TrEMBL record:
NCBIfam families: GGDEF (TIGR00254). Residues 55-188 form the GGDEF domain. Gene3D superfamilies: 3.30.70.270. This is Diguanylate cyclase (GGDEF) domain-containing protein.
Length: 190
């Protein structure tokens, strides 16, 4: 009888410990404000894409255009609501396997793990931008939300995340400074 009780207690403790460990694991890969993945989730998704090693892998990096004005005019809580709404649009627009994440501040990224061509990556970026631009009201306040995005692709077998992030970031800033329509440019790295 005592052995059965001990086994039951041990089993319940193991389940509780496993549940707690899973929650901590999820928290370590989740942005607390938006509920999107964070940089650790991006790295994990990228590593999964690398193991498959086929086709192209793409990374889009973007930030909000004029985000500081939301905080300055309406306050930081309103700015947080904008970030939450943007995260929801990125999450809703993402296809199976794509990993939208909040990197920090008003900067986001989307891992595109199975891209056929750079043009397909550009198309996906335009879809994300269009989705974000549909945010026209928050808390009864009219808003115009836009995101500049840059995307970089590379063969999955050779891709390196830091290089893709840096190149996509450069393209995002070029997009921000040269285009009012905020279109993306993608190229294949050698």
């Amino acid at each position: 009888m005592l052995a059965k009780v001990a086994l039951g207690v041990t089993s319940m403790t193991s389940v509780a410990a496993g549940t707690c460990a899973y929650r901590l694991f999820r928290q370590s890969r989740t942005d607390q404000l938006t509920g999107l993945g964070n940089r650790a989730a991006l790295v994990a998704g990228f590593n999964r894409a690398m193991k498959r090693g086929r086709g192209l892998v793409g990374v889009a990096v973007g930030d909000m255009n004029g985000f500081k004005a939301f905080n300055d005019v309406h306050g930081h809580r309103f700015g947080d609501q904008v970030l939450i709404a943007v995260a929801a649009k990125l999450r809703d627009t993402a296809r199976r396997g794509e990993v939208p994440v909040r990197l920090h501040g008003d900067e986001f990224a989307v891992l595109l793990p199975s891209i056929s061509t750079p043009e397909q990556a550009e198309h996906r970026v335009r879809e994300f931008q269009a989705a974000v631009s549909t945010i026209t009201e928050l808390d009864g306040q009219p808003v115009e939300v836009a995101m500049s995005l840059g995307v970089m692709t590379a063969p999955a077998a050779k891709a390196q995340l830091p290089a893709l992030l840096a190149s996509a970031d450069d393209r995002m800033y070029a997009d921000k400074h040269t285009s009012r329509q905020h279109t993306a440019r993608a190229v294949v790295a050698a």
